[in-house]
Specification:
Number of strands: 22
Strand content: 15-25%
CATH architecture of the largest domain: 3-Layer(aba) Sandwich
Helix content: 25-40%
Strand order of the largest sheet: 9-10-8-11-12-13-14-15-16
Shape: globular
Oligomer: single chain
Distance between the termini: 56 Å
CATH class of the largest domain: Alpha Beta
Number of helices: 16
Amino acid sequence: MQFTVQEIVEITRGELVQGQPSTLVSALSTDSRTLKPGEAFLTLVGEQFDGSTFIAQALSKGTAGIITHAVPARSVVPENIWIIRVSDTLKALGDLAATWRKRFTLPVVGISGSGGKTTTKDIIAHALAGDRVALVTEKNYNNLIGVPLMLLQLTDSHECAVLELGMNAPGELARLTQLSAPHIAALTNIGTAHIGKLGSEEALLQAKAEMFESLSPDALIITNSDCPLTKRMLERINAPQRRKTFGLAHGADVVARKILPLTPYGYAMTIDVQGQQAHVELRTFGKYNVYNALCAASILAELGLPVSTIAERLSNFRAFGMRSETVEINGVAIIKDCYNSNPTSVIQTLESLDDFLTRGNSYVLLGDMLELGEHSVGYHRDVGRAFKQYPVTKVFTIGKLGQIISDTAQKYGQATLHFSSKSEAISTLGELLRPGDVLVIKGSRLMRLEEVADKLVNILSSLCTQHQS
């Protein structure tokens, strides 16, 4: 980014308290801990913090200026540091990002959805690597803070931008869409994620609809033709934009056919992108990732990649970052799916595990599914009942809500064991797992079940080393 101090004052409707209006500002930070010398410091306010209390730390790190809602005493700030007072720093951050975004005409992709948006984004980033200089969402920068920070990184060297747009509350997706102004807006699906925060299914549909209601009329909408809730949402909006679909059913613009399980996991398929076909071997656990691959293929085709190239890049993709990430060690496959969990994604995981071609035992460790509100107990029972259709060798659970899954599954004849702690889970599973076995570990992010997965990998690695010696 590059603004003058005066431009920042005008964009944010702020007040210049100290400093020269002509001073150039080329970088901004919202975190005093990672702030670099010369960057401006914007003081955000959260439920548990007030960024203005960290101004002294930002000054010690060499900040060049401050955008804040609470101006410190003049005696605290050196005269060479500019200060702008604004009424709402979060809004100011978004307004700066939106203004900077308007200076670029490059294609911008916005990806949202209840599940799969990060994996879809990762597939696109993998496919574009080496062909296009793309700005791609980093870490979990998909909210009202992260998306503006990503947009402010745009430079003339970028040829496109691929942004993940998250949603936790009404109005958030509308704001993110307005800030990023995507040419292509893709919705992976609508599921039960975050329904607890929104209160009802109707509220969830309305919140998802915000993305399309906030789009430019000449943008492209890409949706999942097999998702019932997406169909319901589209019926209620009057969106003039061009539309394309992906899915498994006949009639989708991008479709997968002849889907067959690969050994030990993944799926072979033929993808059809508006009449052009190619063979894909998706070496990623989870049949739900077929949909993510199709969504990515739809976007990549719009960005101009040939179908043959898309198929090659899909086949080369490997999941990472605790999203269907598969680690094979000492003959045991551990599937780390610890970043998110909801009833839809868990049942899809069980369906995919049913396709896993293993010569040993199949195990599942499930933690609590969070953010489900008043429906939480019922949803955990639904997951427990799912083992009637998708039985495994044994179900392990952890957490207060995980106990509900265990108790329900047991009523349907499924062997279960509930752990009272992660250390108990690590100890038991470390002794149980044998070559040929597969273990899926899945829970909401706050459960931090990757700690169990990582410890088990270390245990299995040490066993492998002992056998070799």
